[in-house]
Amino acid sequence: MRMAIFDKINLDSIRSTRNPISSAAGMPNAAYTDLELFHFERDSVLSKTWAGLEFTSELPQPGYAIPIDFMGIPLVVVRDHNDEIRVFHNVCSHRGMVVVNQAGPIKKLLRCPYHSWTYDLKGSLKSTPHIGGVGQNKVTGFDCGSHGLKNVSSECWMGIVFINLSGNAMPFAEFIEPLKTRWEAFTGQGQLDQVVVSTHSKMQIEIKANWKLAIENYCEAYHLPWVHPDLNSYSPLEEHVNLHINEYMTGQGTLNYTLSKVAGTTLPKFEFWPEDKMTEGEYISLYPNLMLGVQVDHVFAIILHPQAPDHTVEKLQISYVNETAADPKFEGCRAATMQAWKTVFEEDISAVEGMQRGRHSPGFAGGAFSPVLDPPSHDFHKWVAIAYEKALINGTHDEQSE
Ligand code: FES
Ligand SMILES: [Fe+2]
Question: How far is the CA of 111 from the centre of ligand 1 (A)?
Answer without folding.
Answer: 9
